[in-house]
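Budget justification aside, the reviewers requested a transparent look at the raw inputs and outputs of the sequence design task funded under Objective 1. We therefore reproduce one unedited record. The lines immediately below are the structure tokens for a 60-residue chain.
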């Protein structure tokens, strides 16, 4: 009796389908990045940055 595979390999997507998937992933990543970039910076973090900047100016 010939050896049988327990699990068949999944069908390989053609190049056009793979490109469409990559494009969709890219669109979603850009959208997510834009959302993060446009979020406001918390006041507490701005205060920390301001204090650090003032210390650097005073030490230079």
């Amino acid at each position: 009796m010939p050896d049988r595979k327990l699990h068949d390999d999944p069908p390989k997507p053609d190049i056009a389908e793979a490109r469409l998937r990559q494009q969709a992933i890219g669109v979603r990543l850009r959208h997510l990045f834009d959302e993060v970039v446009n979020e406001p910076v918390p006041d507490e973090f701005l205060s920390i940055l301001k204090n650090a900047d003032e210390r650097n100016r005073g030490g230079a």
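The chain has a mean pLDDT of 87. The CA atoms of residues 29 and 58 lie 41 Å apart. Computational costs for records of this kind are itemized in the attached budget.
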